[in-house]
Structure formats: C-alpha cells, structure tokens
Amino acid sequence: xxxxxxxxxxxxxxxxxxxxxxxxxxxxxxxxxxxxxxxxxxxxxxxxxxxxxxxxxxxxxxxxxxxxxxxxxxxxxxxxxxxxxxxxxxxxxxxxxxxxxxxxxxxxxxxxxxxxxxxxxxxxxxxxxxxxxxxxxxxxxxxxxxxxxxxxxxxxxxxxxxxxxxxxxxxxxxxxxxxxxxxxxxxxxxxxxxxxxxxxxxxxxxxxxxxxxxxxxxxxxxxxxxxxxxxxxxxxxxxxxxxxxxxxxxxxxxxxxxxxxxxxxxxxxxxxxxxxxxxxxxxxxxxxxxxxxxxxxxxxxxxxxxxxxxxxxxxxxxxxxxxxxxxxxxxxxxxxxxxxxxxxxxxxxxxxxxxxxxxxxxxxxxxxxxx
Length: 371
Known about the structure:
Helices cover 69% and strands 4% of the residues. The chain has 14 helices and three strands. The protein has a three-stranded antiparallel sheet.
C-alpha cells in the first residue's frame, strides 16, 4: 500500500503534498456532476446496449473517466515537462487546426472538426488553446528576463496566426476566448493603461464588425435581441422556471426532448429543470471556487512564467463556463461553447482535462531544483 505521509518521497507522495487539493477536489466534483448530467440529459434512453442514447451516455462516462486520469497524470509534471508538452501540442494542433480548413467536417456552417476514428471527432482548436496559453506565457516572460528578446511580438504574431485560422473556420466564440486570454496575460505583465484602452477598443470594434459582416453572428445577436416563440434560448430559459427551487427530479425534465443541443450548449438548462435553482447555484459556486482558488494561489507566486501561464489557463476556463451558463440563461447571445466537464463531448472533456491538469501542475508547490 502506498504511503501518503509527508516523508513519502515517491512520485505520488510528492505530488499529493504539493498539488492544490482544494482545486483537485472541486474538479473531481465537476466530473461527478458531468456523470450525473450525462444520465439526466439523455432523452428517451432505453436500457438496451444497442440504443444510440445508451451508447452516447456510455461514451461520455468513458471520456469523463479518461479525462480525470489524464488530468491527474499531467498535474504531476514539472515546469520543464509542462513547457515541453505545450510546445509539442502547439505544433501538432496548430497543424490540425489548419487542416480543418481543408478537410474539416462542416457542422452548422463551420469547419471546426476532424474525424479521427469512426464515431469520434475532435476540435483541434480546443487542444490548441492550453498549449497556446503556455507558450505565449513563456514568450512574454522571456522578454522580461532578456529585454532584447522579442517575446511579446512573437506572442502577438502567434495570436494573429491563430485568429486568422479561427476566423476562416469560422469560430468566433473560440476567437473571443483566445483574445481575452492574451489580453489577460499582457495585462498581468504590466500593460500600460493606454494600451489597455486600445485593446478594449479593438475588441469592441471587432465585435461590431463580426455583427455586421458574419451572418451567423448577426443571426444569433438578433435571436437574442428578439427571440421568436419556440426558439432554443426561450425553451432553455423556460426550463429554469419549470424546475423551480428543487427541480422536477432526475429524468423528469422535458427540455431535452425539444432542444437538439440539450446535452452540450444547454446542459445547464437541463440541470435547472431537473435539479432546480439550488443545484445550479451549487454548480456556479464550484466553478467560482476553482477560479478564485487558482487566482489566490498565484498571489504569492514569484515565477513570472507561472503567473502568466496559470492566469491565462484559469481565465480561459472561467470565461468558458460563464459564457455557457449565461447563454443558457439568455443573458448573452448563444455562443456554441461547452460547459467544462459537464457538457457532452469526448473531445471537449479531454481538452479541458489537459488544460486543468496543466493548471494543477503549474500551481503545485515547488522546492529546490523544481523551483
């Protein structure tokens, strides 16, 4: 039996006493919620193994287990292993993101997906995001250590390349996340106030241009502004009213019968209808705990690279959760963005598992040579 005393010098022992166990526990809770909602968000499920809904549910549970394992494994990485992993992922998934423009699967007018195996597709940009955050942080941090090194310019150049590819897919939601992460990293690095204002102005101009010249963005904004009766946002919003404080009970909700994206974009509405206001409030608190805990952990961090990288990772995680839940509540236009660990999709679960595994690795306590 493996000992987990403070004197244990094994890999697992050192990991256990250095990892942020509060964040690890909160992430485990999200994985558990994802398991529950994988059952609750499946409409008309039969108990026969050949039923498509049953197969989808089993696949989701498998990817939740795999994602949890991957997250724990990556959280044991040293800083050097984090950088090397991110560099390798950046190269692979930058190429694959470009490949979607040529041979990507078209879904809702966008080419974001690649078919890897029969019945399994991946969205390369989801895996590209954590790798980009780590490498961008490395480039910016290196500029501070070596003033002659053009790290900030290189980070902006890499960001520009990614934005061009995402725009061609198109994927405006992912572009927004990349932009906010880069803005956060430069802000943490000490961006001057005038450049903060300029960056915010550019984001505003980009949002207006997207509304004017990208048809599906215009459609979603108008759908948000004046939703017709029977539209997905109104159906999702009504689900929260039906659920009340305590919900209708597991499997008793009807919203999943009427929303094609109930298991993905609107899984929060399923939670609201079947488990009620208190369950939704608990989910929000778990996400808030993870974000605040990570930010507080960084307050005493002396390594500038770690602050930039972990800050970018947690901001991307928090924004993704905020966008999904806000769109389910009709507070913002729908973005087609998954709720981390909870929305259906093996690719999404694995990508966010990698991202949070990297965060846990970066925020571990480091001693001696590791530091």
